[in-house]
Amino acid sequence: MAGRQLEPTEVEELITSGKVGPLQGFRSRLGKPFIALIKLNAEFATEFDFGQSNEADAEPINFSGQESLGACPKCGNRVFSHGVAYICEKATGPDRTCDFRSGKIILQRPIEVEQMQKLLTTGKTDLLHRFISKKGRPFSAFLARGEDGKVTFEFAPREAKVAKAKAPAKAKKAVTT
């Protein structure tokens, strides 16, 4: 599927529970990597589930028994780990009042629960390494909470380049007559 072969254990879980994932390693038609759950529909055909149900009649997710990661930066309610994202409890179901969600993997780098908790409580994560840019180059950055509650990148200040000291100009010899 989408350039990724499923492992036998993943196929077994898909058949027994009706879904598996979130899984990495898929490629879109444009060659961009993506992450998704795979589930079986009513006809037992496989479908990708990106965890972004837009249906007005979607059931709210039951977060009872889960520990909150922190307060939502947009509305102040609780944020939980769910599927392929960290999501506000008020961003699910037909009565959505918030739209906060952040992927568990950003630019091919997994975001650990501890880092999301730190982002929600302090507004900034530790310096995270191994993000991959759209051009395929690795970089390091902090995840930070923007003014609008969105998750943004904040880059560490660059070290100032040391200017090479120029050799002193040769003094011209004074000609005495």
Compact summary:
11% of the residues lie in helices and 32% in strands. With 177 residues, it is mostly beta strands.
Give the helices and strands, then pairings.
Elements: H1 8-17, E1 19-27, E2 33-40, E3 46-49, E4 70-71, E5 78-82, E6 85-88, E7 101-103, E8 105-106, E9 109-110, H2 113-122, E10 128-132, E11 138-145, E12 151-154
Antiparallel strand pairs: 1-2, 2-3, 4-5, 5-6, 6-7, 8-9, 10-11, 11-12
Could you explain the architecture of this structure?
Strand 1 (19-27) and strand 2 (33-40) form a beta hairpin. The longest helix is centred in the first third of the chain and has 10 residues, at 8-17. This protein has helices at 8-17, 113-122; strands at 19-27, 33-40, 46-49, 70-71, 78-82, 85-88, 101-103, 105-106, 109-110, 128-132, 138-145, 151-154. The model has no long low-confidence stretch (mean pLDDT 81). By secondary structure, the chain is mainly beta. The chain starts with 7 loop residues before the first helix and ends in a 23-residue tail after the last strand. The protein folds into two domains: 8-49, no CATH class; 70-154, no CATH class. The strands form four sheets. It has a four-stranded antiparallel sheet, covered by helices on one side. It has a three-stranded antiparallel sheet with strand order 1-2-3.
